[in-house]
């Protein structure tokens, strides 16, 4: 399945929803993007409902950031 929308963000990460933790107003979604890598997104509970997100769904993480920080162990 291919993401068929136009976005200004250049970084999309296709994966599988492996966990959804609903909070009072915000949900944390874990997306397995393969290779042992899991990204976590914080979105509103309303967005989870509107997207009808469920564990096992194929979804995309869309990264839009004006800054990227780099860290290295000393």
Sequence-ordered SSE layout with sheet pairings:
Blueprint: E1 11-22, E2 26-34, E3 37-44, H1 45-51, E4 58-63
Antiparallel strand pairs: 1-2, 1-4, 2-3
Number of strands: 4
Q: List the total number of helices.
A: 1
CATH topology call: OB fold (Dihydrolipoamide Acetyltransferase, E2P)
Principal-axis shape equals globular
- Helix percent reads under 10%
From the N-terminal CA to the C-terminal CA, the straight-line distance is: 42 Å
Let me know the average pLDDT: 89
The CATH homologous superfamily is called RNA polymerase II/Efflux pump adaptor protein, barrel-sandwich hybrid domain
What CATH first level would be assigned? Mainly Beta
What radius of gyration results from the CA coordinates?
Answer: 14 Å
The CATH architecture: Beta Barrel
Structural class label: mainly beta
The description of the largest β-sheet is: 4 strands, antiparallel
From N to C, what is the helix and strand string? EEEHE
């Amino acid at each position: 399945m291919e993401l068929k929308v136009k976005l200004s963000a250049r970084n999309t990460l296709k994966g599988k929803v492996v966990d959804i933790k609903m909070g009072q107003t915000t949900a944390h979604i874990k997306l397995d993007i393969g290779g042992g890598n899991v990204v976590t997104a914080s979105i509103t509970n309303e967005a989870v409902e509107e997207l009808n997100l469920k564990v096992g769904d194929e979804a995309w993480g869309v990264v839009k950031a004006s800054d990227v920080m780099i860290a290295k162990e000393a």
